[in-house]
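Subject: Sanity check before I submit

Could someone independently write out the structure tokens for this chain? I want to compare against mine line by line before I put it in a report. The sequence has 699 residues.
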Amino acid sequence: MMVSYQQENELAVITINNPPVNALSHGVRQGVFDAIAKAQADDSKAIVLLCEGRTFVAGADISEFGKPMQEPSLAQVNAALESSSKPVIAAIHGTALGGGFELALSCHYRCAVESAAVGLPEVNLGLLPGAGGTQRVPRLIGLKAALDMITSGQKIGAVKATELGLIDRVLDGELKPAAMAYARELLANGAPLRRIRDMSVPADGLNEQALENYRQQLNKRKRGQEAPQKIVDCIAAAAGRTFDEGLAFERERFAECIASEQSAALRHIFFAERSAAKIQGIGKAVQPRAISKVGIIGAGTMGGGIAMVFANAGIPVTLLDLNEEGLERGLALIAKNYGITVSKGKLSEQEAAARQARISGSTDYESLADADLVIEAVFESMDVKRQVFSKLDEVCKPGAILATNTSYLDVNDIAATTSRPQDVIGLHFFSPANVMRLLEVVRADKTADDVLATAMALGKRIGKVAVLAGVCYGFIGNRMLRQYGREAQLCMIEGASPEQIDGVLTRFGMAMGPLAVGDLAGLDIGYKARESLTEEQKGDPRTYCIADALVEQGRLGQKTGAGYYRYDPQTRARSSDPEVLKIIKEQAAKHGVHQRKLSDEEILDRHLLALINEGFRILEEGIAQRSSDIDVVYVYGYGFPSYRGGPMFHAAQRGLKNVYESILKLQEQTGEAHWSPAPLLAQLVSEGKSLQDWESSKN
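---
Independent answer below. Compare away.
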């Protein structure tokens, strides 16, 4: 039974038990609705609402989204709670999120254990609270605090929530007895039925102009997203309309959100992130290895960032660099990074010191002898990496996992350097490693199942989104990035300016345009990498000649004040540079390219189709387990807008036939071999199947 009801002397107790997170499925809604009606008819004097298991109601049942609503709706349940003739007290532990917190807000009083948290995170799914959240929260805490809470979607701890006025009492001791004691205290004091619907919104100085300023700030923070602005509309309605009018307005905006492509995309990413953690073909019997000590080789930016990731998760780290000077520089950078975090108020000095203390430095490989996991983060050279792994093979204990942070190189070749290829894996962190959430876990041919299971579990432990990839040049993300980068270079040499290309892609929602990213990373990185390649390996000179010409003129990007753009030395503010257009024209003439005006639509199409086409190849080759994994890689590692759902979701929304025909058209127009449609895409279109059909037939 999902909801139980019992009377304990003068108190009625309604208990929800719908593991794992007590989601508000139809059974829960019906159970609470019936229990409230029952309580009105018996001789109980107050009602306590609580949950079994590890949490209060942590949200709606997302699996019911898109299906016909079975009554009672959450709004009807909330109305029944609020109109109860007896006081209803919500007793919160774990998290009360989304619909779960809206349920609690409909009660007359809220109490919580100190470790509890509350929040309305619907904005993260392209939605807004649809059962009174945008109307009740402003009445409790004012417009500004409500805007901050609901547009950010962040959780608020019980103590802070009590200070704000969202919770009435932080409980000491065990949840149920403490909540019952609080309910009896309320009865003894003759506490009124405190219905939030009857409250007026407190004045907090948020006038029309202040609201408009808030909208503009929100546009910068949540660029391109629809739900945050609709949340502002609803909270403004709370101030200007009656409660019932506000509820109706909120419901209309919620219906618009749930029918939107943005919400469909964000819900796709929500589920895709959870699917990515599952390794196909490995059962639950495979247990991860214990990881309690980690070694990292290379104290550069990447190695230091990875060290911080483990230290932040409470795991001791030995950071090794063979050069004492390099080690000191790396440790100093880590100290500086923690200092910046403290100065921003995101970390206490004590916690920063504790994290930093978990990182020790060494110049001796023997210090890694007792490490459970060693991650190599040295220069991207196969010879250097082979030397490192040969040494690790000598010093590391049996069963230690040896990981490479390579971005492109063959993990099988690296594993072959050791006598234990089953213990070798790729762990590709993204820069800056202590900020970026993606972790590509690269499975080599001989990687053991328990090593894979360890890597995926470890990813979660250190706060990363881990995605499994197979071995190929660039794995999932960088292999696709090459095609995307190719189109940026070709569009430029054909006549588009850097500003036009970057503008098109940032308006689509990319975090940065490809050329601005190049300037940020440094154009010399690609230049140096190409120096060791043959002409054949370098490929079409039109795809790198402009970048090389810029480097040869000392324009390496932001670090030299000039790349595709010019940069202000103080502010790093970017501006266009006529000199770059001149270099582009010279390279076009040199390579026989006739320049023309490119439309924004063509630029966007070429970049997206390049990603999608390569994604289909990756999927067909088994480099990615599932199409949604590719979306997770691109959203979390490459700044693809989450509200677009990722390249493969975008392809499905657009229609595979449309995608296929658009690629064929580009092939006909350009005669370029790289616009040959991926065989899997062609097959699905000819068979009239979707990606979902194909993936279902494989499983």
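---
OP: Matches mine. For the report I'm noting this point. The first strand starts at residue 3 and ends at 8.
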